[in-house]
């Protein structure tokens, strides 16, 4: 982090390699007072805000939860995965790669002597690259907006949950004791709360239901050339707008160079980074942060590279906030690097939430053994032993997408959590987050220490020098206080914890004392017997039937005498209700 200041009462340190502890530029009391200036507050809250959004956007099914239950007619979706999960080798690879890029940019600036040329090239390149990141941010924002307008549930003033049913085009309540559904007369719109009373005419209600269906259900885009399907993508209506909006913003930034648009693109790239990269465990994440901690300190305090590049490059690689008194600047690495570990902490909170919802189901295990008879070795006796074990049953995962609107409409005024009847919204968004909140507190403390030291010595500071101890220290200290250091150590997102049908041994109090073996999802092929081969044939036959059915639904001709030379189609979802 660095600061550009025009105040005459603060001394200027010209050389980045000069010791910043030789002379104080401002007394600590004055530095604390200046922390309340707008540009510094904007840096802190912008960084924390984009980390909060990115961490929640990175949520996906934890290994302690079972796959989500499919609705009627819904196809099984392929679960999202991180493009790159950081491993132990990245502890060395990351700093070396970043150092090579930074040194290359520094000497390129020195060679050109005019950074304007480099800025034009980088601005054009970053404008194109930022379209995907901004598209992700805009798309998720539009999805949340749709969920606010068309939620699936809402609560009235006394805490009763109203469910919105798009199939029957009505609203109903569920009796907690009997589980019976009662349709609410007069509530025939997809709008929540008092908004449901605004639309009374039947044509307008039908229009709202149709609009809700088009915005919430998936569209299908297909491309077929010479009888072969090259593309089939399931999209939402918001996906058609996200890239149009992000492209327009990128073009506007390229033409105007607006600082506000640059900050927006920078935040979008940070947000997209949380969807793409993640350490596979707390141990690896801490090691990666430690190596980048050393890299940041060396590059800021002992070389001219970091500060020179940051001040001369005008591209969306940093957040810059200016005011009449000066400006403050924060590199994207100071957001993404600790933010990846903070996002992992939030997913660990979700993992623990579903782990607490796991139940133990008793199962009878029968073991048959054959032993030779003592009187006659040629004969055998059969012994059957029956034992009672327990099988771990995971709770089904509830996707966080589309639940933020439910949380808003089921949270009564003056409360922070939804009402008890809103079980989906609670499981998806209102689960306990002790590790994530601890990391947020550590990040905020690190940011304020960074700003204070920067103002005291009037020198750009390596923010990771303070952020890494703040975030990692807060996380491991939380694990120590909660007695969960072992859980943090063994938690991993490499897929090894995602097991099915695990049989465990429990003590008299129902606590697990011994883990059994379970089937790990995604394992490689194992040795197959005759039954397994027959099962493979059945699965292959079923896949062939499903493929033929898909081609028939898409209107593709299977006759050898005909080929679709070119077919491009966009199929809108058909409304389930009667219009």
TrEMBL record:
Against Pfam families, the record matches this protein to: Peptidase_A22B
* Cellular component annotations (GO), alphabetically ordered: cytoplasmic side of endoplasmic reticulum membrane; lumenal side of endoplasmic reticulum membrane
Q: Could you list this entry's UniProt keywords, alphabetically sorted.
A: Endoplasmic reticulum, Hydrolase, Membrane, Transmembrane, Transmembrane helix
What are the TM regions of this chain, as residue ranges? 40-59, 91-109, 121-139, 240-261, 282-307, 435-457, 463-481
Does Nucleotide-binding appear among the keywords?
Answer: no
Q: Its principal location?
A: endoplasmic reticulum
**What terms describe the molecular function in GO for this protein?**
aspartic endopeptidase activity, intramembrane cleaving
| InterPro entries per record | Peptidase_A22B_SPP, Preselin/SPP
Q: What are the boundaries of the signal sequence? A: none
Q: Which GO terms describe its biological process?
A: membrane protein proteolysis; signal peptide processing
Instruction: Name where it's found.
Output: Endoplasmic reticulum membrane
What are the Low complexity biased-composition ranges? 369-388
Q: Which SMART domains match?
A: PSN
Its topology with respect to the membrane? Multi-pass membrane protein
Q: Where is this region: Disordered?
A: 369-390, 514-555
The entry's family comment says: Belongs to the peptidase A22B family.
The protein's name in its UniProt record? Signal peptide peptidase
Q: Which organism is it from?
A: Staphylotrichum longicolle
Starting at the broadest rank, the lineage of the source organism is:
Eukaryota, Fungi, Dikarya, Ascomycota, Pezizomycotina
């Amino acid at each position: 982090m660095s600061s550009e200041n025009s105040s005459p009462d603060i001394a200027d340190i010209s050389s980045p390699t000069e010791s910043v502890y030789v002379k104080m530029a401002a007394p600590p009391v004055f530095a604390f007072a200046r922390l309340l200036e707008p540009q510094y507050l904007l840096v802190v809250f912008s960084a924390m805000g984009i980390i909060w959004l990115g961490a929640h956007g990175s949520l996906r099914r934890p290994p302690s939860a079972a796959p989500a239950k499919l609705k009627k007619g819904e196809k099984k979706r392929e679960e999202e995965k991180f493009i790159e999960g950081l491993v132990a080798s990245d502890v060395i690879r990351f700093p070396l790669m970043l150092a090579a890029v930074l040194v290359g940019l520094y000497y390129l600036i020195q060679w050109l002597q005019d950074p304007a040329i480099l800025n034009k090239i980088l601005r054009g390149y970053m404008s194109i690259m930022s379209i995907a990141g901004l598209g992700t941010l805009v798309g998720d924002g539009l999805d949340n907006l749709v969920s606010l307008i068309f939620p699936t549930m809402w609560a009235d003033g006394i805490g009763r949950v109203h469910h919105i049913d798009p199939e029957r085009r009505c609203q109903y309540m569920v009796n907690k004791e009997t589980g019976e559904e009662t349709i609410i007369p007069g509530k025939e719109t997809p709008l929540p709360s008092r908004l449901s009373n605004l639309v009374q005419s039947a044509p307008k209600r039908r229009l709202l239901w149709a609009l809700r269906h088009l915005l919430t259900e998936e569209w299908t885009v297909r491309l077929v050339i010479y009888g072969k399907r090259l593309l089939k993508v399931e999209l939402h209506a918001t996906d058609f707008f996200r890239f149009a909006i992000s492209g327009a913003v990128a073009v506007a930034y390229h033409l105007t160079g607006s600082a506000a648009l640059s900050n927006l693109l920078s935040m979008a790239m940070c947000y997209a980074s949380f969807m793409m990269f993640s350490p596979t465990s707390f141990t690896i994440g801490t090691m990666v942060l430690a190596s980048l901690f050393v890299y940041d300190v060396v590059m800021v305090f002992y070389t001219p590279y970091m500060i020179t590049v940051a001040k001369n490059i005008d591209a969306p690689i940093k957040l810059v906030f200016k005011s009449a008194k000066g400006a403050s600047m924060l590199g994207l690495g100071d957001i993404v690097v600790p933010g990846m570990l903070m996002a992992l902490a939030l997913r660990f909170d979700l993992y623990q939430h579903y782990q607490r919802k796991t139940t133990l189901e008793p199962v009878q295990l029968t073991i048959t053994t054959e032993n030779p008879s003592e009187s006659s070795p040629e004969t055998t006796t059969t012994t059957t032993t029956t034992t009672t074990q327990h099988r771990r049953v995971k709770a089904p995962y509830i996707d966080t997408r589309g639940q933020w609107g439910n949380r808003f409409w089921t949270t009564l005024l003056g409360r922070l959590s939804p009402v008890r009847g809103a079980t989906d919204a609670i499981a998806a968004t209102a689960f306990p987050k002790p590790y994530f909140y601890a990391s947020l507190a550590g990040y905020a403390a690190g940011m304020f220490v960074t700003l204070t030291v920067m103002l005291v010595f009037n020198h750009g500071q390596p923010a990771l020098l303070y952020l890494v101890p703040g975030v990692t220290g807060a996380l491991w200290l939380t694990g120590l206080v909660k007695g969960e250091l072992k859980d943090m150590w063994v938690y991993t997102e490499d897929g090894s914890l995602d097991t099915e049908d695990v049989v465990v041994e429990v003590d008299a109090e129902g606590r697990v004392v011994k883990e059994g073996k379970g089937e790990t999802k995604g394992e490689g092929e194992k040795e197959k017997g005759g039954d397994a081969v027959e099962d493979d044939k059945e699965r292959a036959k079923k896949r062939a039937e499903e493929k033929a059915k898909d081609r028939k639904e898409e209107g593709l001709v299977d006759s050898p005498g005909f080929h679709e030379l070119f077919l491009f189609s966009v199929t809108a979802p058909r409304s389930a209700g009667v219009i």
